[in-house]
Amino acid sequence: MYRDNIKKLVRLNLKMEKQETKRQHYVPETYLNKFGKERKESVFQVFVLNKERLKNPFTVNTSKICVETNLYTLDGHSEEERQLIENFYNKEIEQKYNAIYQLLTDDNVREVTLAQKELIIATAITLLFRVTKWLTSHNEFIGRVFEKGMQSAEQYGKDYFLFEGDKISFKGKSPKELVNEYAQKSKERNIITPLQVALKLIELKKSDTISVIKLEDESHSFITSDNPIALYNFKMRFFAPFDPDNIISMPLNSKYKLTIYPNDGIYKPEYISRIFHKGILAYTETMTNNVEQFNNAERFVIGDFETLNGFETFLKKAQNPVEIKEEKSKELEKILLISRKLGIIK
Questions:
Q1: Which residue, 93, 24, 17, 20, is CA-closest to 64?
Q2: Cβ–Cβ contacts within 10 Å for residue 43, how many?
Q3: Domain extents in the chain
Q4: What is the Cα–Cα distance from 219 to 341, expressed in whole angstroms?
Q5: pLDDT tens, residue by residue, 93-140
Q6: What's the count of helices (H) and strands (E) in the chain, helices before strands?
Q7: Counting CB atoms within 10 angstroms of each CB, which of 73, 122, 191, 241 has the fewest?
Q8: Is 214 helix (H, G, I), strand (E, B) or coil?
């Protein structure tokens, strides 16, 4: 059922590939390359920092991170059936990423076509739902549910409990083993459902407003992570990732960041808003993004050596802000003065 639904949703006319892809990126390699350096033709390296240790950033090829074996591979008799999801991400998103990246990082581009805009939004939203953190969090939740189910069943002298209408027998099994069995059984659903949700959300947000922030300050750099999409929603008390009113942000490289806002009617649909930051504004924007990426990350953050090497100190400063230095204080006074003249603040 799920496979039939996704075929209808994406309307793909896939050609057979010569070799099936086994190692599948949940954060596209073409995206990761923008945060690294090309060491030889088509081989890029990035610096990576383990989220738990925050020490000793190391280099790794982008082909070897944010990748799992058969992550999107479905059951099926043909290669086309097994590679349906992997081919969708590859053909419809990853192969087109360099083109939209060039548009977004070109300061002279102020308008895009509606098709280009929809592709930009689709890239961000599919990346939001394809990362493994959602699946990890879901399985952790299922693990807690199973533990409580086992405890409750044991109180009544039973070796099974009911979950989603199914009888779950745990005789001779640990909660971890039960979760692994459940994850394997529900793999196809857990792969296809997020893409179905993403496609619906793309349709709802394809008219949103696109904005790009650029850091014009060499001393500050954006980082990314194994879960690059950040979400905000100032309207909702309880946050939901599929809410069309969410603001979506995504660092594009060390100096550029994409933000997608719900359309408020101020800008025409094809317009790209561009913001250029220096000084204290660049520092604030960098701090916001980099703390976000650290908090969002499942296992590691990605960036340049200088930023990651001092990241532990940076986090301490971000969590315990110190008094603004004199030069930054003067910049802030100028901003406040201009804001008062424009009537933005009193």
A1: 24
A2: 13
A3: 2-341
A4: 30
A5: 999 999 999 999 999 999 999 999 999 999 999 999 999 998 888 889
A6: 13, 14
A7: 241
A8: strand
